[in-house]
Known about the structure:
The chain is α/β, with parallel strands linked by helices. Helices cover 44% and strands 23% of the residues. The chain has one domain (6-216): 3-Layer(aba) Sandwich (Rossmann fold), CATH 3.40.50. Helix 3 links the parallel strand 1 and strand 2. It is globular. The protein binds S-adenosylmethionine (SAM).
Amino acid sequence: MTERKKEIISAMFDKLAADYDRNNNIISLFTHKIIKYLVIASVGKLPQNPKILDLCTGTGDIAVMLKNRYKSANVVGVDFSKEMLNIARKKHSQIDFICADCLNLPFKDDTFDLATISFGLRNTENYEKAVIEINRVLKSGGIFVHLDFDKKSKLADYVFEKIVKSFKNENYEYLLKSKEEFPDSAQLIKLIEQNGFKHLKTNNYLLGIISAQYFTK
Ligand SMILES: C[S@@+](CC[C@H](N)C(=O)[O-])C[C@H]1O[C@@H](n2cnc3c(N)ncnc32)[C@H](O)[C@@H]1O
């Protein structure tokens, strides 16, 4: 596995931050926002005034959509890239964007009703440690949603690689590598279930190029 060090990853995302939203539009051919919207629409009912955590929140897309959907919610977005968070904070004033490590969250056990992580788990130093930490801060019966690329289409992988390589940016080369090394959804479901979650459903998008897995604690 590529060596992943907290300082290296956060510095890399600091550098990518300014162009992150624009490049995401290009890489996803303008589909990522629609997919994120559909993923959240599929979460279902939460308790009154829910507490929601968006991990690896980046520039805050998911956190903002969650706050718009669950208006009475207390939404917290966590990321360790200060530059990504600076962009997120400009998008919504009623979300707490906190600079912290997802592998060592500054929250008590059993705090949140919903935790989401989108295109993020893959970038953490240790996927399993992140899952254990998510389990710790989620209430019993809480929902966990993981969204990322899946490995169901070789053609999609090829097109994605071509687009990303056209940026001629070494940081994007790293992201390609992290995508290659990341488990597919079946392996991931197994890992997450081994760490205290029950798999509820999987939603596929773009013919399975991207998938979201839903779990409960
Ligand atoms: C590809 S971006 C995803 C951003 C956003 N969730 C989205 O869907 O567009 C991955 C983010 O994960 C963050 N990240 C990676 N490892 C992290 C960790 N251990 N703790 C906090 N943030 C982390 C990076 O700083 C980066 O902003």
